[in-house]
Amino acid sequence: MTENDRLVLRPYNTGDFEDYLKMVSDPNVVRFLGGQPMPAEDAWNRLLRYAGHWALFGFGMFAVFERPTGLFIGETGVADFHRGLGENFDGVGEAAWVFTSKSQGRGFAYEAAMAALNWYSSCADRRRTVCLIAPDNRPSLVLAERLGYVPFGNVVHRGGPFVKLERTLID
Fold first, then answer.
1. Is the sign of the CA dihedral 31, 34, 39, 42 positive or negative?
2. Which end of the chain has less Cβ packing within 10 Å, N or C?
3. Total domain count, the chain
């Protein structure tokens, strides 16, 4: 778990399911994540996958809550999604973030993602992370750039084009 004045980041638990399902059922949220609201069964399986990351790797996706209100506002973290995109991508921590429609535009994604990346770098002692973003997902590309990511290639994944980005911390 990590927190600051505005946010609390912690691993998901099964009690987060309804909030998570609501987020991934919002067409505005999923427009760059396959375009279709996620069925409840898939959302449940994803939460279980997130729990598996923490159990097997000691890192994963954080559920993000607004500290003053306790409201769930999204997720961010670093995971090993095993996408089959090659040695310069797979096996490297993959950063990800998704935030509720109501929380967007308030700086939460940057703040939470930076906290998660800092946590990952210090706890997992990893210097390089990658991420995968659809080229028309301008808000995520802007966020990735703010976080220090730079493009290093393009790829087709699950039938759609994506930009591969990387971030390497230098001592």
1. negative
2. C
3. 1
pLDDT in tens, the chain (171 residues): 787 889 999 999 999 999 999 999 999 888 877 778 999 999 999 999 999 999 999 999 999 999 999 999 999 999 999 899 988 999 899 999 999 989 888 899 999 999 999 999 887 667 889 999 999 999 999 999 999 999 999 999 988 899 999 999 865
137 belongs to a structural domain: no
- Please report whether residue 135 resides in a domain: no
Dihedral over Cα of 126, 54, 131, 64: its sign:
negative
Q: Are 74 and 97 in contact (CB under 8 A)?
A: yes
Q: How far is CA 6 from CA 3, 59, 110, in A?
A: 8, 22, 12
